[in-house]
Amino acid sequence: ETSHPSHKPDDMNPLLLQVFRSVVWVYSVLTFLPWYLLSGAGVNLERSRRVKARSVSGRPAGPYRATDQLRGIQQKLVSSMHPGVDTLDKVMEHGAARFPRRDCLGTREVLSEEDELQPNGKVFKKVILGEYKWMSYEETYQAAVHFGSGLAALGQKPQCNIAIFCETRAEWMIAAQAGFIYNFPLVTLYATLGGPAIAHGLNETEITHIVTSKDLLQSRLKAILLEVPRLQHIIVVDSKPTSWPGFPRGIMVHNMDAVQELGSRPNNSKEEPLPSDTAVIMYTSGSTGIPKGVMISHSNIIAGITGMAERIPNLDETDTYIGYLPLAHVLELSAEMVCISHGCRIGYSSPQTLADQSTKIKKGSKGDTSVLKPTLMAAVPEIMDRIYKNVMTKVEEMSSVQRTLFVLAYNYKMEQISKGYSTPLCDRLVFKKVRSLLGGHIRVLLSGGAPLSAATQRFMNICLCCPVGQGYGLTETSGAGTISESGYYSTDKPNPRGEILIGGPNVTMGYYKKQSEDFLVDASGQRWFCTGDIGEFHTDGCLKIIDRKKDLVKLQAGEYVSLGKVEAVLKNCSFVDNICAYANSDQSYVIGFVVPNQKQLTILAEQRGLRGSWEEICNHPEMERDVLRILTEAALSAKLERFEIPKKIRLSAEPWTPETGLVTDAFKLKRKELKSHYQDDIERMYGGK
């Protein structure tokens, strides 16, 4: 473990834990004996220990397939969840037919906005939000039909690309459904991409129509309009204002409501998509250079969401999903399509309004999870790491009695889970408050987009009282495949290791207007994608991601360092909000760039008698030395090798956000941009300047 509060959950005195265990056992026998007898602990243990996947070829190199799909080696992988629902327009149509009056898409009403002056002089915009307003499945379907018809009236043609450049919101999904219904392939772009990347995507896909928001039109799109000569129509999803002056000649700006009204007149003819037609050209976040457009067919997405749905137990129309991750990311789009296929409610949120403590929520008012009370949620590790650190900081602020009770309950529950039991008493008395951070009703939490540390996953499982699953996939594909090559070998003992290749009907059509050696077709016609990730298959069939080909750096003395491994270990330190490890092959040691936790570092500075602005504290050599010492201790306790531990660090006063261009929308590090940003510091730390 590398969490840094002085009372880590698993550092409790064994005698105290034994006393606590005895007290809880006596209480449970008296109060919860019927529940224990019916808990099915044996079944839970048997299920957790089962073999999840095995090689269908009998060879360590695979390919591997989930055992619940192995009813015969020749059997095809699942490709659809409902008979006849083989394109995405039919998914929405199926939902509207089965659940016409059920809530589908929900948006919170904005009651008021105000500016709040912070102690550092910055002004933050705060909002007070009301209840969720809902569109039914039938209303959502009709809105999509009318919007698609209106787009056709504006000259949008079937199988001609249309762009969506918009924040995650109900209108994004309505526009997407319109595209699916009328066979307009969607070009999706992250809302945080820079001007050149946006222009590149729009020009490469020859966009004439784009759906966007008022804010993004003014802040990002308007500045590059002259660089996108084919663009003719801009559709703004906000209902106000109704006039848009000051745009280049030849470009017309419309409101979404007006386009829907246009489409409510006699229907324009539409062309139904085929499963093999392109549904989405999804531009990557550009973590390794200029974004690439991944061509995803209707059948690709159907296969992907079918696999996802099979891993969510008891999914049905009583579930509520909270949508706040970028819909331009395959994880969020897939999750929402799974929900629509099963009649779930989708309530929209944002990272700034998610919880009561979120940055845009006025103190004393409710965040979105408190109002929506979702049962399903997807998250990226950045969000989950933030919750973990916030809770552990609050634990440190507790009285010694409260802190001891929390740690005892944590370790007791961890022990009980390992035996297959639940802990209703601890959940009710100790973890209820933590669970309420996300509304109190989450039953399945899916993490994706980047690796989640073992410490954070265990913490979320215990304190949120629900299973936390890590999804592994890429824009280019989803699901697990097989392994081979790359300095790791399928013959490695005790477990076969190598690069992960993924095959199946979910593997996409390739990159738009680009050839790539990452996509392969074998002799049987099976399509594969080479992920660049290094995996290890355990004896129970679990796939563990252990490395990234591009994250491996060979130091001067010949040692291999996995930068991702170093970052995953050190990111759990309470002094670290984010970290990027860096190494040159012509150097003998690793260095690091660290975004420190402001609260922890400020306390440390006060203890050292240091005063000044936040930037001055971060730039102080004594602070760098202290944080480096803390990181070294964390690294050693996590059993990192000496050559893996950074010898020098640079503290960054500015956080890394998608807006800075240093991380993607999924908060993955952009190593190329980070290297460029910190080039002077790299030269200083390696050159001794």
UniProtKB/TrEMBL annotation:
The chain crosses the membrane at residues 24-45. Signal peptide: none annotated. PROSITE patterns: AMP_BINDING. GO terms for biological process: long-chain fatty-acyl-CoA metabolic process; neuron differentiation. Coiled coil: none annotated. Residues 127-483 form the AMP-dependent synthetase/ligase domain. GO terms for molecular function: long-chain fatty acid-CoA ligase activity. Its EC number is 6.2.1.3. GO terms for cellular component: endoplasmic reticulum; lipid droplet; plasma membrane. Keywords: Fatty acid metabolism, Ligase, Lipid metabolism, Membrane, Transmembrane, Transmembrane helix. Gene3D superfamilies: 3.30.300.30, N-terminal domain of ligase-like (3.40.50.12780). Pfam families: AMP-binding. It catalyses: a long-chain fatty acid + ATP + CoA = a long-chain fatty acyl-CoA + AMP + diphosphate. InterPro entries: AMP-bd_C_sf (IPR045851), AMP-binding_CS (IPR020845), AMP-dep_synth/lig_dom (IPR000873), ANL_N_sf (IPR042099). Belongs to the ATP-dependent AMP-binding enzyme family. This is long-chain-fatty-acid--CoA ligase. It comes from Esox lucius (Northern pike). The lineage of its organism: Eukaryota, Metazoa, Chordata, Craniata, Vertebrata.
